Amino acid sequence: MLLWASPLFARTAPIAFVGGYLIDGTGGEPIADATVLVDGNKIVKAGPAARVKIPSGARVIPLRGKSILPGIVDSHMHIGASGAGSVDPREFRPVATENSLIAYLKFGVTTAYDMAANPRLSEMKAALAQGRLIGPRLYGNGYGITAPGSHPIRLLNEIGVLDLLGPYYFQVSTEPEAVAAVHKIVEANTDGLKIFHSRAESATSRYDCDRDKLSPEVLKAVIREAHANGKKVYAHISFPSEARDVVEAGGDVIVHSISMAETGADEVLKMMAERGVAYIPTLSIVERDYVAHSDRYFTTPLRGKVWEVFFDSVVNPKSVVNERNNVPGLRNDEKRSMDIAMANLRTALKANVKIAMGTDSGNNGILHGATVVREMELMNSGGMTPMQVIVSATKTAADVIGQGAQVGTIEPGKLADLIVVDGNPLENIALINSVELVVLDGKIIDPGNLQYKDAGK
Ligand SMILES: [Zn+2]
């Protein structure tokens, strides 16, 4: 009887990644010819080869010419939505969600935060933990809080999913209602709490009213109660005044760029830096309509790595993204928003605001997994150095979603979530697209071998 071969007795050998260029996510000096030692699901040691002893019996993986980084953390996504064009029924089948999870791993994302409001979040977390699904570590809010009829209620109604998703948004207008909503969310055991403090947005126009937002009293009540229960508050905003309301009420994270023209952005960003309020610019969603038409973005390498159903749907002339481009004036508005978002990124950077990488994937045209590449390129072209971008997509993103003690850097004691990319992404951030190996919880995955599941016709 091969007793030693039974899982009870089996112990995988430590793994030594040797000869790679180590960018550990802390922002410290990178190390050429580094050794990263992993035992079980933990990082044991990382540093110059001369200083890390490789135990006998370790499995050695040579990484010459490659870089080793922490797994990427997408701090803002929506796993329940396809991110494609909403023109193919297969996008709405459960298998689409399973393939979205696989997409994250293919692009080196080992941790992701579902920003709101996902009816299946706890179910999916359990399935991932039990190995019934394969995907990144998943955290999220599960629910949203907004003012009656405000964003995104109107939008959900317009696109015909209010009956389906409406119950996952608490519409509150008084302090007792707010407190009751927070208690329900806390009881559902979610990781944080999403609030919408924004003018209602519609599918075909933007921000045509400035009313129905949470009052300052209700905002304060939500945030106070969330904090009393150990939950961070993540806020959807667009205008500087909306961000300011949230910051003054004690919110923790602004989950979008300030992308609308109004004075006061500089002051709010300065306040955020002073109070430690984080900023997730989600530039990809602001840029959305350029992306749909970008020959450079939707090209062969993506076609090979993205599930074909999503790819074909998003480039379809009838996709939601392409239809939006036919709405008079909308695209110009969005171009203007992008300019404002980019300017505010520079201001945030100068003011030392904590900036976390997040894509808002799941929205139409914002593909799961693939968009991290675009987002990181946009952050780079918005004035962040490749090193700053990498830190924002690893350490800072992990900190902002409350997982910084476990993941986000390559340091002894952290969980072994790593990626290996070809070349040096500090020389060209686009190389973050060339993920050759993913290590998730100490297990090595070849992203090229991950197969998307067939959804039938
Ligand atoms: Zn979002």
Question: What's the topology here?
Answer:
Elements: E1 15-22, E2 31-39, E3 42-48, E4 59-62, E5 66-70, E6 72-77, H1 94-106, E7 109-114, H2 121-129, E8 137-140, E9 144-146, H3 153-158, H4 162-165, E10 169-171, H5 175-187, E11 192-196, H6 216-228, E12 232-236, H7 240-248, E13 253-254, H8 265-275, E14 278-279, H9 283-293, H10 300-305, H11 308-315, H12 320-324, H13 330-350, H14 371-381, H15 386-392, H16 395-400, E15 418-422, E16 435-440, E17 443-445
Bound molecules: zinc ion.
Zinc ion binds next to loops.
Which keywords apply here?
2 domains; Urease, subunit C, domain 1; alpha/beta; 33% helix; binds zinc ion; TIM Barrel; eight-stranded mixed beta sheet; 16 helices
Descriptive report:
The protein is of the alpha/beta class and 457 residues long. The protein folds into two domains: 3-70 and 411-449, Urease, subunit C, domain 1; 72-400, TIM Barrel, CATH 3.20.20. Helices cover 33% and strands 18% of the residues. The chain contains 16 helices and 17 strands. The protein has helices at 94-106, 121-129, 153-158, 162-165, 175-187, 216-228, 240-248, 265-275, 283-293, 300-305, 308-315, 320-324, 330-350, 371-381, 386-392, 395-400; strands at 15-22, 31-39, 42-48, 59-62, 66-70, 72-77, 109-114, 137-140, 144-146, 169-171, 192-196, 232-236, 253-254, 278-279, 418-422, 435-440, 443-445. The strands form three sheets. Strands 1, 2, 3, 4, 5, 15, 16 and 17 form an eight-stranded mixed sheet that branches. Strands 10-9-11-12-13-14 form a six-stranded parallel sheet. Strands 6-7-8 form a three-stranded parallel sheet. α5 (175-187) runs parallel beside α6 (216-228) and α7 runs parallel beside α8. Bound molecules: zinc ion. The site of zinc ion (ZN) has 4 residues, from loops.
